[in-house]
Amino acid sequence: MRPPTDLPRRRSKPANRGLLVVLGVVVFVLLLLLLSLRGIAGFYTDYLWFDELNLTSVWKGVLGAKVAMAIVFTAVFFVLMWVNLTIADLIAPRFRPSGPEEQVVERYHALVGPRAGLVRIGVSALFALIAGPGTAGQWNSWILFRNRVEFGTNDALFDRDIGFFVFQLPFLKFVTDWLFAALVIVLIVTAAAHYLNGGIRFQTPMQKVTSQVKIHLSVLLAVLALIKAVGYVLQRYELVYSSRGVVSGAGYTDVKAQLPALNLLIGISLIAAALFLINIFWRGWVLPVAAVSLWALVSVTAGAAIPALMQKFRVQPTESSKERPYIARNINATRTAFNLSETEVNDFGYRDDLTAADLAEDEDTIRNVRLWDPTILEADYKRLQEIRNFYQFNDVDVDRYGLSSSDRVTQVMVAARELNIAGIPSPSWENQHLVYTHGYGVVGSAANAVAPDGNPDLLVKDLPPTPENGPLTVDNNAIYFGEDLPGYAIVKTTRQEIDFTEANGTNHTSTYNGSGGVAMDSWVRRAALALRFGQPEPLISGFITSESKAIYNRDIDERVRKAAPFLKFDSDPYPVLFNERIHWIYDAYTTTSRYPYSQPADTSRVPAGSGLQSGFNYVRNSVKVVIDAYDGTMKFYVMDDSDPIVRAYAKAFPELFTDGATMDPGLREHVRYPEDLFRVQTNMYGLYHMTDPGEFYNKTDAWDFAQAPGAVGGAAAVAPGTPVGQSREPRIAPYYLQMRLPEEEKTSFLLFEPFVPLSRDDSRKDLTAFMVAKSDPEDYGKLKTYVMPRQRQIDGPALVNARINQEPDISREITLLGAPGSGSRVMLGNMLLIPIKQSLLYVQPLYVSSENTPLPQLKRVIVVYSDRVVMRDSLEQALTELFGDAPPTLEQSDPGSQPPATGTPPPDGSTAPPTGDTSRAQNLLTQAVDHYQAAETALKAGDLATYQRENNTARDLVNQANAALGASPPATTTVPPPPQPPA
Question: Which residues of the chain have pLDDT under 50?
Fold first, then answer.
């Protein structure tokens, strides 16, 4: 039925749909514009950041290299494609024979004909934009190629300077490979153009390829063959990185079979190029087919099959003999590339005759034995000294300072109290970016210092830092640049910045007065920064004035990587207090994977976040970066100008680098050998201390890092990764020591790593050697190895740990301290190996912490010497128990305290040298009474672990008192009997 005409008609929706489309387009355009503006803002503010640091030359240099690479290679590809497409159009036949293919071609010409020139440009531009811009990623190769220097050493196979392989070969190889791939694409597209133009016909009884097209394609094929020949020339040099043999570098098969095959393929490629050109005058395509077939045959037989057969049937049956000279090349190159060739090797004449006089002579070593593990100490610092939620300690670092007017240097643990953004109260934009802008001060304690309650004895603490003129205090405590510090801050505003808050809630404030930060003195800059940060407040906030500055990239890791993207950086920057300011020292490395014959680094033990995790076979710690924690200024000191790679970068960016000789001597005293580099070097040295190729091949004297003893209630700090030989147990990480090495006159600050023999099942745990790296300015970077005598077995850390566990008294006390229900948790610290003269001490601290409140306190120190194991309340007491006397340490104890010995007694069965001193005996008995009373109190409270410990202590004190009087233990004493546990 037809609807009445007077009814209202339903509205159509095309108009609404059109409006929605228009709105959608507008929104899309606005978003695109916003993204573009934000990208432009990021680009502009990056420039401002570099300009503020006076490093615009680096910004321009890196950006210029990227842009130049992209433009040049894009232009080259465009020209190659456009010229060949133009030639294809110019030589197109005027008459195209009819056939089934012609209909498609006719349609193409009808569509494209009038616009052929534009199509050529469009196709060329499209492919050029695909193939060209990606080459910007090779900017670093171009910078090194352009600023190359010589190494002054030639490779063992081609006798060319190492600099050719490091600086020139990578870029030449890239250009050759890119050109070959570009011409293959051009050849394919050109052939397609010839087909569309009628120069190539597959379904015709007449000539399938016109003579003009044949000439064109033959020339392109000839050029491809010539480029391939150049590629084979460069591939010859790549043999120095071969992994075919037992070690990296050209081996027997590479030299005797692969190298001749490549020489042959160079000749075949040149012959093929000649045949392609001769084909211009030859009817048909017989010559090109013959050239390609010959190339394929030689490539498969001479280039692949013959080398594989030679390796299988000639080399492997007598591999040690055939590969011997090439293993020698690898050993020499690897030792040089990892800076191991100058390692000083010493025999360690192990003896068991250490005396108290020897300890007194090595007093500085004893007073610097590290009793605080950084991971344990970090927990203490957090509980005792973070003070407010908006502070945090990210790390505890090891350094050394002079703590008195004498020349004595003390090993010190230091941590910076940095800003914790997540802990800012009322996290408004104002608080996060204007008020809470920085951390404040450091906390530090001597590595050997312990307070009477077992906590670290702090040299500097609290807020404001006290003591005000102590060795670790500075005038300017503000930390605007640090570790793990994302986001941005705006300073010099009308809002005061909080330095710290007192216990009563009083805020101490300040206004930034440093040179750091990008000026916000115009609306353009403020708008650009607002776009960069994705927040409008930098543009509209009334607290910001023309004097204000924006501080961004304030995380020091992000900061140094942005300033020098071509360097690799360590995983552990550390704070240094110098010249009344807090500074950060950051180790930077130059690396390459292109050092001939060198073995790629084993990086399995390198911590996460280290720049040394990527593949390389050459490394130098050539640069030390010093960052001012207040104003963010950075100085890149070149500490090793013998490194050719850093010389090349210094040639490219002279304004970035500073001569290391100009570093202030006071700052140089805090430079330390980097742990990440030492991990890599010791990992390599486990094999490459063997310089005889036969011994190296058989691995008869291969070493591995010493196994790390386990921990009770926690894990010891160990090196990450899988050890050499695929052994399963964790390994000891390198650790810093301030000590005197055997046969040396003074102490040195050094890194230390013990070795055991390599065994795949970890069955070998005896000590075979230890290696050290010195950090003192006069001997910086010197590596020394001490090798144990082969005629006797010396216990390594794991065997010493087993002996400790076998001591019933020690094992019992550790079990009681951490028994279920005791409320305590026991943690064993790192076991430290301390060489003194020609003897070895093992020291392991023991910490006790509440299960509910993790505040580890140092309660015992275990010392192992020769066949004796002793556990006492302090290192000094343990050494006194072992040797009768000991030099003073930095530990503090309760006045008159003399806890009992626990462990293996000396050969005469006494626990302390008899003195016959009546006053000392009385003092011991008084202490025994106190311990019995403490045991009774603990028993009433149901604390059986404390009861047992106090009871045993009291009994041992009674025995000591009797020994002091020179008498046998009496049947009865005046000391009250210990309380009995309930039935």
Answer: 1-3, 7, 12, 711-727, 895-899, 909-916, 918, 965-983
The pLDDT of residue 11? 52
CA dihedral 424, 428, 433, 436 (to 10 degrees): -30
Tokens of 854: 């993790």
Tokens 């100009």 identify what position?
A: 662
pLDDT score, position 589:
98
* pLDDT at 723 (0 to 100): 31
> Which ranges constitute the DSSP H helices of 761-897?
797-806, 808-817, 875-883
Can you tell me the distance from the alpha carbon of 376 to that of 169, in angstroms, rounded to the nearest whole number? 49
Cα dihedral across residues 894, 897, 902, 906: positive or negative: positive
| Strands 581-592, 442-450: pairing kind | unpaired
Tell me the C-alpha to C-alpha distance, in Å, between residue 283 and each of 71, 87, 213, 434: 41, 22, 13, 82
Q: Are 744 and 720 in contact (CB under 8 A)?
A: no
CB neighbourhood size of 218 (10 A): 22
Q: What is the per-residue pLDDT for 743?
A: 87
At 504, which amino acid appears? N
Strand pairing category for 478-479 and 439-440: antiparallel
Cα separation of 687 and 338, whole Å? Answer: 13
The answer to whether the beta carbons of residues 624 and 677 sit under 8 Å apart is: no
Residue 924: predicted pLDDT: 61
Closest by alpha carbon to 420, among 394, 450, 381?
394
Instruction: Provide DSSP, 452-521.
Output: TTSSEEEEEBTTTTBSTTSTT--S--EESSBSS--S-EEESSSSPEEEEE-TTSPEEEE---SS-SEE--
CA 273 to chain centre: 48
DSSP 717: -
Structure confidence at residue 279 (pLDDT): 87
- Asked if residues 479 and 627 have their Cβ atoms less than 8 Å apart, the reply is no
pLDDT at 618 (0 to 100): 98
Q: Do 58 and 560 touch, CB atoms closer than 8 A? A: no
Contacts of 386 (CB under 8 A, 6+ apart): 392, 393, 417
Query: Residue 745: left if φ>0, alpha if ψ -120 to 50, beta else—which one?
Result: alpha
pTM above 0.90, yes or no: no
Closest CA to 574 of 442, 415, 781: 415
Cα 621–Cα 613–Cα 725 angle in degrees, nearest 5: 105
736-763 exposure pattern, b = at least 16 Cβ within 10 A, e = fewer: bbbbbbeeeeebbbbbbbbbbbbeeebe
User: Could you give the 3-state DSSP secondary structure of residue 623?
Assistant: strand
Question: Per DSSP, what are the bridge partners of residue 848?
Answer: 826, 857
Q: How far apart are CA 723 and CA 702, in angstroms?
A: 13
Neighbours of 429 (CB within 10 A): 13
- N-to-C CA span, the chain: 106
Contacts of 249 (CB under 8 A, 6+ apart): 240, 241, 242, 326, 329, 330, 333, 596, 597, 598
DSSP category for residue 718: E
Largest Cα separation within the chain, whole Å, is 131
**Is cis: bond before 464, omega within 30 of 0?**
yes
Q: Give the tokens for residue 223.
A: 């050029």
| Cis amide linkage into residue 835, ω under 30° from 0 | no
Cα 272 to chain center, whole Å? 49
pLDDT at 897: 46
3-state secondary structure of 242: coil
Task: Check if the beta carbon of residue 769 is closer than 8 Å to that of residue 789.
Answer: no
Tokens in use for 267? 């000749």
- Judge contact between 468 and 519, C-beta under 8 A: no
Q: Which SS3 state, helix, strand or coil, does residue 983 take? A: coil
Tokens of 482: 């640090």
